[in-house]
Amino acid sequence: MRATKKRAVWMTNLHSAKVTYQGVRKTLRLCTKCLRRVKAQMQKKVSEKRIIIEKSPEVVVPIVF
User: Fold this and answer.
1) Is 64 part of a structural domain of the chain?
2) 31 lies in which domain range?
3) Which residues, 6 or more positions from 17, have their beta carbon under 8 angstroms from its beta carbon?
């Protein structure tokens, strides 16, 4: 006898990732497409911060006796 066919159920490919969302660090379950997009955005922000830090003058700390 032939086995009965069942409808295929496609599950999303979710991964846990720590993400900064609205200024709060959270662990979210993201699909791989969203995860790639978030990583690219976070990498872009990190590179922007490096540029800002490099361009800023050195911070002078006052010495109090």
Assistant:
1) no
2) 14-54
3) 27, 28, 29, 30, 35, 38
Contact 63, 52 (CB under 8 A): no
Contact in structure between 16 and 23 (CB atoms under 8 Å): no
The residue ranges of DSSP E strands in the chain, in sequence order, are 14-21, 24-31
Mean pLDDT of 33-48: 82
The answer as to whether 33 is a domain residue is yes
Could you give the number of structural domains in the chain? 1
- Flag whether 44 is in a domain: yes
How many C-beta atoms surround the C-beta of residue 39 within 10 A?
Answer: 13
pLDDT tens figures, 7-23: 888 888 898 988 877 88
Instruction: Please give the Cα distance from 37 to 49 (Å, whole number).
Output: 19
